[in-house]
Structures
1.
Amino acid sequence: MRIVFMGTPEFAVASLDALIKNNYRVVGVVTVPDKPAGRGQQVQQSAVKKYALEHNLKLLQPEKLKDEHFISELKALKADLQFVVAFRMLPEVVWTMPKLGTYNLHASLLPKYRGAAPINWAIINGEKESGVTTFKLKHEIDTGNILFQEKVKIEATTTAGELHDILMVVGAGLILKTAEVLQKSFENGIEPDFLQQQESLVCHAPKIFKEDCLVDWTKSAADISNRIRGLSPYPTAYTRLKNGDETELTIKLFNSKFEICEPFHPNGSLLTDNKTFLKVYCEDGLVEITDIQLQGKKRITIAEFLRGFTIKDKAMFV
């Protein structure tokens, strides 16, 4: 069975590595073109490209997925099956090319959290579980028939970064399970059993923008803590510190805890000993901030921050 793999970030590398280590025949890898990134705007290769080069895999990096030259190169690989993990939206001419079809690994329990940011939104919305799904691609994004799913628990302290790493590993295992079933289908010509997505259960996980990252201190303690964890470490929740007469400072928030209590002060008011802790009043309690980052600085703990910064009376997060 000839497999073409499509992906870009580290999340996809785990699945590609699983296929290679289990002796599946990956005849080509498709990833994004190299592009400038970071402060120095140095040209960066995708994580998938780096892996492909290390393992001497055939590599394609099309600028446009409808480009005739790319389509010709892809056809020449004569793939029986394509896997897509954290890549781009594919045109029909690409996803219909293999006789077994094209299968996507999605980081949610479809049909919940269709879209670009399923890991973030699951935590932001206070879900108790998430998971991964493999499904067969069709026209509408994330709507194809499901082959397999695997659930994972979301703990009260789990961040988006931590859930990402868990689902990366679980997802690689699900790709192998999917490849095994499709290998049998390749050999016997019998299509595997699918589960149709229930449209009544659909919810969406759209791309996250800067306005989604600004903390609203009028929300409940649980909602605020979920948002901070759901955006950590990227794209990161933020707030503005009004510290007396000083200029407002923008502060990124990476982690938090919360407690429910009578809110004795206005939303956004700060409670601190100026040594070890910083808590923020909200609608129904206090949110304790544990890790932050000032603009242009590195991420530090609250204790480290308070050693070099004094919170003044009547200071607030706004």
2.
Amino acid sequence: MITFGMASLEEIYQINQFAEKMGETPYPFSGLYMVCRKAGELAGYCVIRVHSAYAELIDAILLKEDKDDALKIVLIKSALNAIDLAGTKNVVCKNSKMKDILEKLEFTRNEQNDYILNLEGYFKPCSCKKK
């Protein structure tokens, strides 16, 4: 079973160990860490830093390859939904390595070549009719 949720403190440490092994700077502990778990084991993570007027999507990593990006898309959307529910509507991403997935998620580029997304109306209400 695949589940999504906020990272535990232990998972945040584990995520930063992965980042260091990949030669990356550890992520900020003040960030929002959304994780996906397969059979209870960490399978991927998304890191977002919330600022006063916007949120910054820092990175999204799956620990095993996902050829069609479906799991990574759901993981990032889970994190975006969390910040949307918290009231933040503007998202920026400066991580150009995520270009392809950002375009699938409807991010566009601004004048500074950052990827941006406005969450106003992004998560539309269910269109199914209640009986």
3.
Amino acid sequence: MAVVSNKIKISKQDKILQIICIAVVFLFCILCIIPFLLIIGGSLDKEANITKYGYSIIPKTFSLEAYTVLFKDSTIYKAYGTTVFTTAAGTLSAMLLTVMMAYPLAQKRLKFRTPITFFVYFTMLFGGGLVPTYLLISKYLNLSDKIWVLIIPIMFSAWNMFLMRNFFSGIPGELSESAKIDGANDFQTLFQIILPVSKPGMATISMFYALGYWNQWYNAMLYLGNNSRDIFPLQYLIMDLTRSTDALKEMAKFTGIAVVNLPDSTLKMATTLVTIGPIILLYPFVQKYFTQGLTVGSIKG
């Protein structure tokens, strides 16, 4: 009796195409990794070497001078705490608000579903502008110089809500109907049936919110004064630090003071690693869900 082989024969053209694709992807990965290695090498080198020889992956003179300058002030530890708190609290609050609005809008039985959807969509097209927003937050809500000003103004994103709504719309309706037959109410259906099967979408939207909170500095610039330095987020504090270093360098040009050893470029490289490091460490834990969630919104419009 003849044995049928399950192996799929690959033609010579397909093998060549695979080799080309692998080579292109490998080259692209190398091009992405090299700048990151240059940042690491630059942050561990002396400023004089960068000024004279330029950036290199391997430091010519190993030095932690940039990190010493960066961490000598205890303010950066407070900034890390502020950023971690705002990222965690803001992401959780934003996801709760997004889910609580996206799930009802995904239900066709919701009354006034179309007008509410249009109202949310309208905010994506037109905004109040900077001046009305500033007056609302600072004068009427009285959030200036408070840590909540880093959380509340960006707590909700219409774009993320629509992505989450489309993801909910792609879940088979039989799940909700079976839960209703068993006597579950809307909250039980959402938190016990829908959300457990929505991990890819939840992880993707959570990553979007977390990146937004982690990288924010604009609201801090607008609403936090020098008296609120203890609650500066990490990004704004580092921007302020590098801006002060640039100011010292410009001032030195007029005073004639040698600034060759001032860690300007190395400090910027070190701050880059400090700010993106936690996100890089977090990504592998959500990569599985993030990859699945890339198709969020592609099932239904």
4.
Amino acid sequence: MTVDVRSGSDTDHGERRVRPYDFQQQEALDRTRLRRLVPVLEVLAHRIAGSLTSTVRQSVRVEVGELEQQRWEVYTNELPEPTFLSSATILPFGGKIVMHLPLAFALALVEIRLGGSARSDQPARPLTEIEQRLVSDVAQQALAELPPAFAPVLNLGIGAISSVASSMFLQAVKPSETCLLIAMRVEVGDVGTFDTSMCVPITVLLPILDALERLDKVDNGSETDSMQGHLRERLLDAPVEAVMCFPDIVLSPDELLSLVPGDVVGLHHQSGAPLLLRVGGVPFCSIVATNRGKRLAGLVVEGEEVHS
């Protein structure tokens, strides 16, 4: 499975990339879960760009490309020989994350760090011991940006960092274990653009995805609580009709028909006896009629039984 997280398409100069697909490969992660990583990876790319800019003294832009699931043995078999690989132990999970820099990029970094322009084509040869050390310093600074980039999600640490010239000397995980390949395109000033990648084992990736999902649930829960609180406030502010009701009286048809203007109908209600307060037509509580200044008022009576 391939997930393209770039803002544009996955084409280079108008030509679509075509690659073999292993139909026997079992995809361990759903595409929706992988997309949760995109904001964090964009932060990581921005931090790596800043680190490289300060190291090579040129403007560097890093763009996150495709996210692809692949077995470790397939990934290493597709790497060129020789090449440059730098790995770091991710704490507290204990797994290793691997950064791959193609030789052309590695040699360009060496030339820039030694004061050259790196605008000419780089020779196709392995790195010397000194060149390996110079490139390792750059890779170490890039890998050091992992903990601060993932800090809003969970606390990560970087353990031992090592660099090798061949995948034969690096065994990050079991050959059959699935890894997430994060493609990155690095643009260095007017030197050129280079394709690099990071390989993250599932053992390291799953705790990160779980932490992202927990964070989303907390955010959604807080938003729901806020909406419920706002709805409750609006409901409490809604006006309702409250009516103070006297007890019913009974009149015969003859008494009703004999009523004329000026007649007085007795309510048969003792002074000080509780009345019924209806709210929205529903019995709510018992109150006693009283005065507050020149206004009529009702005093709520505690412990009185409400009758409908």
